[in-house]
Amino acid sequence: MFRMAAPRLALCVCVLMLAVFTLTEGLRGAGPRRCCFKFNEREVPSGRVIGYMRTSQRCPNPAVLLRTVAGPRQLCVRPSATWVKNLISYLDTKAIPGETTNL
């Protein structure tokens, strides 16, 4: 009798573990779309930047992604850098009311 119950018990435990894993992964939601691990340290001229976006708070490093006139590639920069703060202020004041400069 125990020989038949052991495989059923093992199967039930596996299904239960899979269900718990699936549920906990689903509750975490999708991860951040983009995080930065390397940073551009050189100042980017304000005339070359057309927008910016802050990375998710779930990223290990706080960062700002700059969108430039050069195309779809984005540059990771440190939000604590003085030139980045000045650039963000410039972009925010340049924004047309009702539109956002953030990507």
UniProtKB/TrEMBL annotation:
<feature type="domain" description="Chemokine interleukin-8-like">
    <location>
        <begin position="32"/>
        <end position="91"/>
    </location>
</feature>
<dbReference type="InterPro" id="IPR036048">
    <property type="entry name" value="Interleukin_8-like_sf"/>
</dbReference>
<protein>
    <recommendedName>
        <fullName>Chemokine interleukin-8-like domain-containing protein</fullName>
    </recommendedName>
</protein>
<dbReference type="GO" id="GO:0006955">
    <property type="term" value="P:immune response"/>
</dbReference>
<keyword id="KW-0964">Secreted</keyword>
<keyword id="KW-0732">Signal</keyword>
<dbReference type="GO" id="GO:0005615">
    <property type="term" value="C:extracellular space"/>
</dbReference>
<dbReference type="Pfam" id="PF00048">
    <property type="entry name" value="IL8"/>
</dbReference>
<dbReference type="InterPro" id="IPR001811">
    <property type="entry name" value="Chemokine_IL8-like_dom"/>
</dbReference>
<dbReference type="InterPro" id="IPR039809">
    <property type="entry name" value="Chemokine_b/g/d"/>
</dbReference>
<dbReference type="GO" id="GO:0008009">
    <property type="term" value="F:chemokine activity"/>
</dbReference>
<feature type="signal peptide">
    <location>
        <begin position="1"/>
        <end position="26"/>
    </location>
</feature>
<keyword id="KW-0202">Cytokine</keyword>
